[in-house]
Amino acid sequence: MRRSVLQGLKKQASTHAGLWLDKYITTTATSDTEAKRSLVAEVSGQTAPREYADYLARCRASLRALGAEERLGETQGRLVVGLGGESVLETHLTLHRTYGVPYIPGSAIKGLMSRFAATRLEDAAWERSLDPRRFHRGEAQKALFGTTEEAGLIIFFDALPLEYKIHPDVMTPHHGDYYGGASVPPADWDSPIPVPFLSVTGKFVFALALAPGVIPEQGRPWLEVAWKVLELALQEEGIGAKTTSGYGRMRLTNAPGPSSAAPPSPPKTVSAVEAILEQFRALKPSDLAPQAPQIIQKLYGLEAPADEKKAAAEEIWKRLQAAGTLKGKEEKAWYRQLRELQG
To answer: Which of 100, 160, 278, 283 could disulfide-pair with 18, CB 3.0 to 4.6 Å?
Structure first.
């Protein structure tokens, strides 16, 4: 009953992306890949709420008041954080609980830096072993990232987006049984299984600060080292999931200051009528006859201002008339709907 009600709801520009992703799938049947694909398509392109700009400004002001330093990380391709998180889909994307915007948790940033330092910096001070039988951290690892007994010198804050776009994405694993642990070897005749997921591009504000009680003059070299490690880790290894496929690479630069910082501008919003019209404009001449009727019916059933629909209908009419597509179609339902829209 609940799922059937959801089918009648439409996503709005102000819809919380995380809420829509978690609660508004139209069916929970695991075999219904179309419902998952539709959900991913609906969440992609969702913009930040208007209140987020003020929230980000307050956060950055608070960080500066605490003495934190900022850098701007720009994605060099797609980014996906939290892919393995719990979700109604088989995949997930980490979204802010309150504002629904994608972000990078500080814990993920800290983990990336610690692992990168341990594996890529050739010095015993950066070594670490997480094997419980011979757990070990080098002196630099202890100082920068802390231990279970003592906090580190640096605080790692969540990286919030300055601007972003959510994209629909897909992976196509070919050997599901093999990867699932079944005793079946991978074979060329295995069928790919498309798995939709969400990824992000944009600019994120990274912030690091010295921990409370650390003397600035003594902690300054450690903060500079932390920024360098983060820059190299983002550039060479990437953060989040699917880094072996090129995801998660970012370029770190100085963050714009408060006076020149551009407010987080949400992607340009397009009305539902304009979206339909763009779909019509993209049609090739050879596709007008088979596809225009569906677009007209979609426009006809859309709840939107009448003058906006009328303008769109007139544009569609002119193109179809010029192409000769309207000739002899007077009895078709889509023809009558188009005339009705024109008033």
So the answer is: 100
Nearest-angstrom CA–CA distance, 258 and 33: 45
pTM: 0.68
Average per-residue pLDDT in the chain?
Answer: 85
Question: Of 128, 102, 2, 112, whose CA–CA distance to 43 is shortest?
Answer: 102
Backbone angles phi, psi at 167, to 5 degrees: -115, 150
Say what the alpha-carbon torsion angle 232, 234, 239, 243 is, to the nearest 10 degrees: -80
- Asked whether the beta carbons of 325 and 284 are under 8 A apart, the reply is no
SS3 at position 279:
helix
**Contacts for 120 with CB less than 8 Å, ≥ 6 apart:** 232, 233, 236, 237
User: Distance between CA atoms of 191 and 174, rounded to whole angstroms?
Assistant: 6
- The number of CA neighbours under 13 Å toward the Cβ of 27 is 10
Alpha carbons 244 and 222: distance in angstroms, whole number: 29
Residue with tokens 């341990």, as numbered in its chain = 118
| Rounded Cα–Cα distance for residues 271 and 274 (Å) | 5
Residue 207: strand pairing partners? 70
Beta bridge partners of 169: 197
